[in-house]
Design a protein that fits this description.
This protein is α/β, with parallel strands linked by helices and 148 residues long. It has 2 domains: 64 residues; 71 residues, no CATH class. It has 4 helices and 7 strands. The chain has a 4-stranded mixed β-sheet with strand order 1-2-3-4, covered by helices on one side. Strands 5-6-7 form a 3-stranded antiparallel β-sheet. A hairpin with a 2-residue loop joins strand 5 and strand 6. Helix 1 crosses helix 2.
């Protein structure tokens, strides 16, 4: 899939559009400023699986960018801790929002589902259309999976 960043969109809209990207997606920019903003965000997020393209009006590629992590493989402990703190903060915001709107996140089988609080205790509801699965990008594992 590709996302086209229009020259007229705000920085917040660019941020929001980039957050929708998945591995293998391409981002097309027609404006140099938007291209540089996207590049900065991809570097900041360390997303190496999104291709950024600067294009002209005829859809000709003028420049391309793909984040490449530093050559050394070992990630400094401070950065890992900082990343963990950011993830915990983001998850806490999501869980607070779920609580506010009456949703529960439930561990089901080998993944997570979101259901209305009123249905969270009903095992059949976890298999119904009321339960929406969460794409965890293979980052969620249960304790049982870890000890196997």
């Amino acid at each position: 899939m590709h996302i086209e960043i229009k020259p007229s969109v705000t920085q917040q809209q660019v941020h929001d559009q980039l957050r929708q990207c998945r591995a293998g997606d391409r981002v097309h920019c027609l404006d140099v400023g938007q291209f540089l903003l996207c590049k900065r965000l991809l570097e900041q997020w360390r997303w190496g699986d999104v291709l950024l393209l600067m294009m002209d009006e005829q859809k000709k590629v003028l420049k391309q960018y793909k984040y490449r992590p530093p050559a050394h493989d070992e990630i400094p402990r401070e950065r890992l801790v900082r990343d963990q703190e950011q993830v915990v903060y983001a998850l806490e915001k999501v869980f607070a929002h779920c609580h506010k709107v009456g949703l529960k996140v439930v561990s089901f089988s080998d993944g997570l589902v979101v259901v209305p609080t009123t249905l969270a205790d009903d095992p059949l509801a976890l298999c119904s259309a009321s339960a929406l699965g969460i794409n965890d990008y293979e980052t969620y594992v249960t304790f049982a999976e870890q000890v196997e």
